[in-house]
Design brief:
Blueprint (H helix, E strand, L loop, with lengths): L1 H9 L14 H11 L5 E5 L1 H8 L8 E5 L5 H5 L6 H8 L4 E9 L2 E3 L2 E4 L1 H11 L11 H14 L8 E3 L3 E3 L2 E4 L5 E3 L2 E3 L11 E6 L7 H10 L9 E7 L1 E14 L2 E21 L1
Parallel strand pairs: 1-2
Antiparallel strand pairs: 3-4, 3-14, 5-8, 5-13, 6-7, 6-13, 8-11, 9-10, 11-12, 13-14
């Protein structure tokens, strides 16, 4: 609670504090705040809490994202400091940026969604459990989960889904911004052209072999190469994309496991929300 008090002190207007009690509660709290006429909503959380608030906020009430999770992709991608107090001080200036959101099967997302590989990683990390403070395991555990998953699959991913109008792919990564995520301090550039003000970008390797992994990792770190690679499907600034899976595949949005899906409809909700930056 001491950290919460420090964040509240950094914000203006003596904000009223509400604590979440269960998964999904932040959606309800955000809706209630909007209905009560709140001038702004501040969220001190990780990316899961941010995602819930995005699914409860309207288009006119400004929202400020204070990084409280292990990665906190959304505020970092918006250019806010990683330190929560410093981020709260920046947010308190009241500068507003209008951004678009993505929507997958009706669920909004702020920075990314994935079908297949990255959603499988999210699920396996969740299976490791949470720390006493509610956080997921750190970056080392995440990297080892990726390595173990690749070894288990012998670094082979074959075509498992169809992107309407684009072709078959092994898995699909959907970006609402760049970077897609972070590995510690290192930004991961899945879709380097993606921007918060535009539609969604889709990047989908047609297949993956062991020999492809080093090249794909270089793409992620450098943010160059994947858009021109003949074995990678890329589509920029889309309003809508439909994906058909050969079998049930895991789906994640903003790092939250949404279970297995066979059909995915993703759309861009342009000029959706006001965020404090």
């Amino acid at each position: 609670m001491a950290r919460v008090e420090q964040v509240c002190t950094a914000l203006t207007g003596d904000p009223e504090v509400r604590l979440t009690e269960a998964r999904g509660h932040a959606v309800e709290l955000a809706r209630n705040a909007v209905a009560a006429g709140a001038s702004a909503v501040y969220v001190f959380s990780g990316d899961g809490g941010f995602n819930e608030v995005l699914n409860g906020i309207d288009g006119s009430t400004p929202v400020g994202f204070v990084p409280g999770g292990g990665t906190s992709v959304l505020p970092r991608a918006l250019g806010l400091p990683r330190d929560p107090v410093a981020a709260a001080q920046r947010i308190a200036r009241g500068e507003i940026r209008r951004i678009a959101l993505g929507r997958v099967n009706g669920r909004r997302f702020g920075f990314n969604a994935g079908i297949g590989f990255d959603a499988e990683i999210v699920r396996r990390v969740d299976e490791l459990g949470r720390k006493p403070d509610g956080r997921r395991p750190g970056d080392i555990a995440f990297v080892w989960t990726v390595v173990r998953t690749l070894v288990r699959r012998r670094c082979r991913y074959e075509g498992a889904l169809e992107l309407e109008g684009l072709g078959r792919a092994a898995f699909a990564l959907i970006a609402n911004c760049d970077p897609y995520s972070y590995a510690g301090r290192v930004p991961l550039h899945v879709a380097p052209l993606a921007r918060f003000e535009l539609g969604v970008d889709v990047v989908a390797p047609k297949s993956v072999r062991a020999r492809d992994v080093p090249r794909l990792v270089r793409y992620l770190v450098r943010g160059k190469g994947q858009l021109d690679a003949p074995d990678v499907i890329h589509a920029h600034d889309l309003d809508r994309i439909v994906i058909h899976c050969d079998r049930p595949l895991p789906l994640q949005v903003d790092g939250e496991d949404l279970g297995d899906v066979e059909e995915v409809e993703c759309s861009a909700e342009r000029d959706a929300v006001s965020v404090l930056v």
